[in-house]
Amino acid sequence: MNPDWHPLQDELQRWQDAGLTLPVWWRDDDAIAVTPQLKQLTALSGELGLPVHLAVIPRDVEASLAEYVSDQSALVPVVHGWAHQNHAPVNEKKAEFRLHRPIEALIADAEAGLTRLRTLFGDQLRPVFVPPWNRIDTEVTAHLPKLGYRILSTATPRKTPDAAPGIAQVNTHLDPIDWHGTRSLVEPRKLITQTVQLLQDRRTGRADNTEAFGVLTHHLVHDQDIWMFAQDLLHRLLEGPGIPWTAPYN
Predict the structure, then answer these.
(1) N or C: which end of the chain has fewer CB within 10 A?
(2) What pTM was computed for the model?
(3) How far is residue 247 from each of residues 1, 3, 170, 241, 244, measured CA to CA in Å?
(4) How many structural domains are present in the chain?
(5) Residue from 55, 133, 61, 145 nearest 97 by CA
(6) Nearest 10 degrees: Cα torsion 68, 74, 80, 83
(7) CATH number, domain at 104?
(8) Are 84 and 31 in contact (CB under 8 A)?
């Protein structure tokens, strides 16, 4: 794999020439245990100097993960739903926190997720809610601040800074995995073109550059091409106008 990075390098140079900065954050989903892939993720984070927001599945998380994270300043645990369980009918896209169940059950699961991870991770946990498959009903979102959440993270550029009163929206914008095809890396030229377009929209004011630019990964399913692309992309962003962003504690 030898992608042509020139289009991205040209766009990043325009940012630097204009004296602009790009807030960058990294979210990695579906953590439950200490694995060789998680250790590789941790090492890459340290090498890049960019923390990873580790979206942890509360129901299934192993206590050993909390022990591991406690010694890793590069890993920032956040709440990934409750069980990562699909409740949508077969003719709809997968979701755990859409209104396929009573609202009371959804709120209870969101609260249980925060409670369990606070018990395990303590002050290391950031009050960020990441709904599985990046889908959540607005009715559920409205209840998140009362439970103690301060940020909702889904996907695509946000339309407004707040997802609901009392809770900010900070999304991810680029996912390098071809989920509906090879389940390996999306064609690199397509990913680079997509990144350039997203950055152009920010640079020209068509998108909100106060929202951190989010790269989404899933360490458990990475092959070598995905690891290499993610490393190269993040390295280039951070060498250019990128400034690491980390979710606040409250």
Answers:
(1) C
(2) 0.97
(3) 33, 31, 9, 19, 10
(4) 1
(5) 133
(6) -20
(7) 3.20.20.370
(8) no
